[in-house]
Design brief:
Layout lengths: L9 H16 L8 H19 L4 H8 L7 H8 L1 E6 L11 E8 L2 E8 L5 H6 L7 H16 L4 E7 L6 H5 L2 H13 L5 E10 H5 L6 E5 L3 E3 L3 H8 L6 H8 L3 H6 L5 E3 L10 H19 L4 H13 L10
Parallel strand pairs: 3-4, 4-5, 5-6, 5-7, 6-8
Antiparallel strand pairs: 1-2, 2-3
Length: about 325
């Protein structure tokens, strides 16, 4: 469990610290604090339930960015075997903000793609804080086309603040790279399952998000824009991010209600960062179930299924005459 704590977590972490101290003091006999420990543990469990069952949207945004959350490579370690990472877009460079490679899922060969953030400052600089440049998306595209050629299902893990908006990225065709990914992903003839594991930010997320199934972890977010950027543009005030988060309705239950995501996957009690292994097990069970359903479809049916899913999004009102 990460030592990094969000403000609303602190009362719970303080109580858990007291429990740990009491456990160290409890040696049996005269120093047996079993009854007190039991009361404190029940209190901690109740407090945890109260805190995490009533989070505001802004608190969920903060939780989705928690430094201790499992990233793509953490899920690779927990869920896949025989992982072989592949690099480069064969055009310009290697972008470490997106990782991709072939692996086995329950013994079946698959492609795994995902955004990858860093935990240290040095690693975040290497991975550009999980914000891909065009070469990252072109690498993803190259690997997806290879997976289709060899009939490998594709798992995408989404966790990015957004595509990198730097001058170099724009010069090398950031918008075109994202748009081309959307076009090619729409027509892939293999199962594609996308999961938002942290932040799903704008086109930077959607570029690897066109799947037959789109899943979200319980405390992840998915939005056209970050709350901070939204508040700067709409409210002309960057301090109103909390208000923007409420207006954006970007949490997993929000998006499930809109029919944008197909399933919300429960995280470990208190969030994925508190028990990454249990969270990964729950995600693995969902991926297994959805893959089993999609494998019953023909290549043409997979394309039709994906097309129908995205055509059904939104509400349209046409006036004739």
């Amino acid at each position: 469990m990460s030592h990094y704590a969000l403000e609303f977590e602190k009362p719970l972490l303080e109580l858990e610290r007291k429990i740990d101290e009491l456990k160290q003091l409890s040696t049996g006999g005269a120093n047996d604090f079993g009854d007190e420990l039991g009361k404190l543990e029940r209190k901690a469990k109740k407090l945890q339930s109260e805190i995490f069952s009533d989070l505001s949207r802004w608190q969920v945004v903060q939780l989705s960015r928690h430094h201790g959350r499992p990233y793509t490579l953490d899920y690779v370690q927990h869920l896949f075997t025989d992982w072989v990472e592949l690099h480069g877009d064969r055009r310009f460079a290697e972008d470490q903000a997106i990782v991709g490679g072939f692996a086995r899922f329950d013994g079946e060969p698959v492609l795994v793609l995902g955004h990858q953030k860093g935990r240290s400052t040095k690693e975040n600089m290497q991975r550009n804080f999980g914000m891909p440049r065009p070469e990252g998306y072109r690498k993803a595209l190259r690997l997806m086309e290879m997976a289709e050629r060899f009939n490998r299902p594709i798992f995408c893990f989404i966790d990015t603040p957004g595509a990198y908006p730097g001058i170099g990225a724009e010069e090398r065709g950031q918008a075109e790279a994202i748009a081309y990914n959307l076009e090619i992903m729409a027509g892939l003839k293999v199962p594609v399952i996308c999961t938002v594991i942290g932040e799903g930010g704008s086109g930077g997320a959607l570029a690897i998000g066109v799947g037959n199934r789109v899943l979200m972890m319980e405390f992840s977010v998915y939005s056209v824009i970050s709350p901070e950027a939204c508040s700067s543009i709409l409210y002309r005030d960057p301090t109103k991010a909390e208000k923007a988060a409420e207006a954006l309705k970007l949490t997993a239950p929000d998006l499930a209600g809109f029919g944008i995501v197909d399933e919300v996957i429960a995280e470990a009690p208190g969030g994925a960062h508190r028990d990454p292994k249990l969270t990964a097990e729950r995600l693995g069970n969902a991926l297994r179930r959805h893959l089993g359903e999609l494998k019953k479809l023909s290549p043409e049916q997979l394309v039709d299924d994906r097309y129908a899913k995205f055509r059904a999004l939104g509400v349209f009102d046409e006036e004739l005459g």
